[in-house]
Amino acid sequence: MVLSGGAAVSIYTLNKYVSRDIDLVNVYAVERKKIRAAMHEIGFQERNRYFIHPESNHIVEFPPGPLAVDSQSVTRISKVKYSTGTLRVISPTDCVKDRLAAYYFWNDGQSLSQAVLVARNRRVNMGELRRWSRASDMMDKHAIFLHKLHPISRKR
């Protein structure tokens, strides 16, 4: 499983953005019944495609793989170590792409803000973001992202 979506933004921004939705992409095609059994064992109940816990405000989803942003496969996985174990998370660059995809294709302004937050808090491959934006014919929206990332201070 690999963490993506808003919860990855939370990880990379040290909770400057907080998501209540945890997307763990099922990259190994684990059978749903095995996921269900494991989640039930720790107190989660299945509701439609989500898992909820009575003592948590978070919902967990296991979208099927493959892991991709837009139509491009994601191959770079970061490992974030905690005292409880290691969490596999899409890379900061792919996290920004994921958020920009929502902005580019669905005009989601909140996702644009999240992309900016991640890019300000983590090292991202700006050349790759530019290449991907050009290939997606989204250079106009990429320019807006860059402006929000590095606003020009106005002189009075």
Can you give keywords for this protein?
two-stranded antiparallel ribbon; five-stranded mixed sheet; elongated; 156 residues; 6 helices; alpha+beta
What does the model show?
This protein is of the alpha+beta class. Helices cover 42% and strands 21% of the residues. It is built from six helices and nine strands. A five-stranded mixed β-sheet has the order 1-2-5-4-3. The longest helix has 15 residues, at 92-106. It is elongated. The mean pLDDT is 94.
Total of helices: 6
Order of H and E elements: EHEHEEEEEEEHHHH
Count of strand segments: 9
Number of separate domains? 1
What is the C-alpha radius of gyration, as a whole number of Å? 17 Å
**Mean model confidence by pLDDT:** 94
Helix content: 40-55%
| Structural class computed from helices and strand pairing | alpha+beta
Major sheet: order of its strands?
1-2-5-4-3
Main sheet attributes: strand count, strand direction, barrel closure: 5 strands, mixed
Strand content: 15-25%
Question: What is the distance, rounded to the nearest whole angstrom, between the alpha carbons of the first and last residues?
Answer: 51 Å
Low-confidence stretches: none
Q: Can you summarize this structure?
A:
The chain has 156 residues and is an alpha+beta fold. It contains six helices and nine strands. A five-stranded mixed sheet has the order 1-2-5-4-3. A two-stranded antiparallel ribbon has the order 6-7.
